[in-house]
UniProtKB/TrEMBL annotation:
InterPro entries: IS1016-like_transposase (IPR053164), Tnp_ISXO2-like (IPR024445). Residues 122-250 form the ISXO2-like transposase domain. This is ISXO2-like transposase domain-containing protein. It comes from Chromulina nebulosa. The lineage of its organism: Eukaryota, Sar, Stramenopiles, Ochrophyta, Chrysophyceae. NCBIfam families: transpos_IS1595.
Length: 285
């Protein structure tokens, strides 16, 4: 990943930032009258037809990641780069000079963007073991015994070198709900391993092409006969909960945090190039 000093020199002005996006294939110079348009020296976002008398004008960032904001393009890209590096809200605010609310808006926008790259990325496949588990994201209420307020999250991780994974908030842990989300995020033919929660129904999972094994956690964390366990996904829950603020343990915000953590793990060390790919490939309307 580039460092902040190197990138800052490439984004020293809005015009340079647009050149950076063009050079990296994120946007392209628009055409008009069968010829490339040229940039307006006074308004870098605007490109003008070179043919007289046409002189049509067009925003080069319309329908792009930067298109619906009044912020300069270089500021937007710097916010996105700092987000990719894992900078805090306050650090981004300090280095870009934008308001706290603006940082929050763009933070959530970045989460939404990387979440879209995960939408059609099913894990598993024929013969691949996928550990699946559910966990409650929430805070224990005082004077309420063992009751935990929050949201249930369903997750899965492959037993492969890539260790691809998914995590999604679910409304409940009923059979129909869990089966629906497993079908959405896991490829048919996978070998699923879960605990013995009744929501994981072997017959229902077989109908969507899944082989199903269980491990009884009241007896141990590994089935002594089959070797089945869910240690990988259970270990991941700890990491998710450490990286998502507790105030976001609700249906409004938790999926954004889950998507961010999942995306970072899949693209560790390559976040910025992958982010540029995402803003190039996502369609904006």
């Amino acid at each position: 990943m580039s460092n902040i000093i190197e990138l800052a020199s490439q984004l020293s002005s809005q015009s340079n930032a647009i050149d950076f996006l063009i050079a990296n294939g994120v946007i392209s110079v628009p055409l008009c009258c069968e010829a490339p348009m040229r940039s307006d020296p006074k308004r870098p976002k605007i490109y003008i037809c070179c043919k007289y008398p046409c002189r049509k004008k067009k925003s080069i960032v319309k329908d792009t990641f930067c298109g619906n904001s009044n912020l300069p393009v270089n500021t937007i890209l710097l916010i996105a780069f700092l987000w990719c590096t894992g900078s805090t809200h306050s650090a981004i605010q300090q280095q870009t000079g934008v308001s706290k609310n603006t940082v929050t808006d763009w933070w959530q926008y970045c989460q939404e963007l990387v979440g879209m790259t995960l939408e059609n990325d099913k894990i598993g496949g024929p013969g691949i073991v996928v550990e699946i588990d559910e966990s409650k994201f929430g805070k224990r209420k005082y004077n309420s015994g063992k009751r935990v307020e929050g949201v249930w999250v369903l997750g899965g991780v492959e037993r492969t070198e890539e260790r691809r994974m998914f995590a999604i908030a679910v409304e409940d842990r009923r059979k129909d709900t869990l089966t629906k989300f497993i079908k959405r995020y896991v490829k048919s033919g996978s070998h699923i391993i879960t605990d013995c929660w009744r929501g994981y129904d072997t017959a229902a999972l077989a109908k969507i092409g899944m082989q199903h094994s269980t491990v009884n956690h009241t007896v141990g964390f590994k089935d002594p006969l089959t070797g089945a366990h869910t240690n990988s996904i259970e270990g991941n829950w700890r990491g998710f909960k450490q990286q998502i603020p507790t105030q976001h343990y609700n249906t409004l915000f938790v999926n954004g945090g889950l998507d961010e953590v999942t995306w970072r793990r899949l693209n560790k060390g390559n976040e910025w190039p992958k982010f540029l790919e995402a803003i190039r490939d996502i369609r904006y309307y």
